[in-house]
Amino acid sequence: MITRRRAFLQENIIIAASEAQSHRDARVPSTWQQQLTHAIRDPQILCERLGLSRDWLAVARIGHDLFDVCVPEAYLTRIAHADINDPLLRQVMPLGDEALTPQGYVVDPLEEADHRPAKGLIHKYAGRVLLIASPNCAINCRYCFRRHFPYSDNSPSRAQWQEALDYLRSDTTLHEAILSGGDPLAANDRQLAWLVEQLESIAHLKRLRIHTRLPVVIPDRVDDALLGWLTSTRLQTVVVLHINHANEIDQAVVDACARLKRAGATLLNQSVLLRGINDDVATLAALSERLFEAAILPYYLHVLDPVQGAAHFDVPDDEARDLVAALRDHLPGFLMPRLVREIPGKGSKTPL
Ligand code: SF4
Fold first, then answer.
1. CATH 3.20.20.70 residue ranges for the chain
2. Domain 112-351: which topology?
3. Locate the Radical SAM core domain: which residues (predicted)?
């Protein structure tokens, strides 16, 4: 298995370099790290670049004060100019509605604070654990259920990872480690390669799952260094992407996914059902079709977790059920995402 994967790597590196070059916009700095550094983090620049009026800047500042804006250039290029309703802009544009505090919307909607047996480790479900491999993201999604997560208390150094790794070593019922964050791929590859090496030395672990949005928002993140550790691990790899709208998948994303596939990863997608972004049948059908064109299988469609600051994105469960029932008339079964809600304390996601 390892030999076959290494052979793929050589081919991957050559193809990755030429694909990344051919899709690079002249405005986009060359490496993913530079793109991350130069991401837009000022609401005024976001509004100016997208031709939005000063009225929008005023409300954007309210949301930005609660949760910083962050939009990388490669994502910005997919947003329509001067259209406040653009479905990609809606995901990243801070708004005054984020200051509302309706009942039931809280800072830790999944009660993750109750499931942290070691720094950087969350253990909610049997057989698998989640590691906060990076406190950072390449984009700040306004509906994020971890927008209030205490990352400063959960960003272990190498020495501090030992407690979490000891926990994994001692529990032989664990078969899967999930790298999460933030976005785990916001960490550098030296750190990730080290962490994966530690995980693969634990004999009872079989799978490495990576929950990430980075190959979508900065496709150049799928570079030689990442493919190096991903290809050489003995663990079976699953990359769960996070895409909510077909417009997020441009050719650079398709190419990044092809590189991940050639490295041996299974590609799945989870979406969040979001008011005004993807809450209609045609949009959800187009998303599934486009995902499959990028070699990604739809996995979950989550209803919104009730996180403070995101209530304006909510779609009630009954409406979500009706939408998904109607979606079945438009898609083959293998392109249907499972509609789920995460309920704190339950042993798995709850199908709706
Ligand atoms: S990339 Fe993921 S973790 Fe980061 S803000 Fe978006 S949804 Fe949240």
1. 112-351
2. TIM Barrel (3.20.20)
3. 123-346
| The two three-digit tokens of residue 137, written as one number | 């993201």
| Residue of 198, 140, 187 whose CA lies nearest to 165 | 198
Which two structure tokens, joined as six digits, stand for 169?
């070593």
Reported as a single tens digit per residue, the pLDDT across 237-283 is 999 999 999 999 999 999 999 999 999 999 999 999 999 999 999 99
Question: What are the distances in angstroms from CA 51 to CA 42, 43, 61, 82?
Answer: 14, 12, 16, 5
Across-strand partners of 270?
242, 300
Model pTM? 0.91
Cβ–Cβ < 8 Å for 295, 267? yes
CA distance 6 to 4: 6
CB count in 10 Å sphere of residue 21: 10
CA of 75 to the centre of ligand 1 (A): 14
